[in-house]
Amino acid sequence: QAGTLYSISATLENLIRDLQQNFEHDIQFVISGGDAEAIQALLPDDVEVDADIVLKGLKLYAKQPPANSNS
Length: 71
Prior knowledge:
It is built from three helices and two strands. The chain is mainly alpha-helical. Helix 2 links the parallel strand 1 (29-31) and strand 2 (47-49). The longest helix has 21 residues, at 2-22. The chain is extended. It starts with a helix and ends in a 9-residue tail after the last helix.
């Protein structure tokens, strides 16, 4: 299992580095999921864990006004 965590964290670290190099604006990195806290320990300090990010997104989506249907 440790090998999998190191593989995932290395992949994420490379992705983070690439995104930081290719975008001028600050990017906020948030991870979620069952092993997020274990992976976070292997990543740069600016990566946050948010266990409820999917639910927060659904809440924002639910608050949107209905789309106009011109059918």
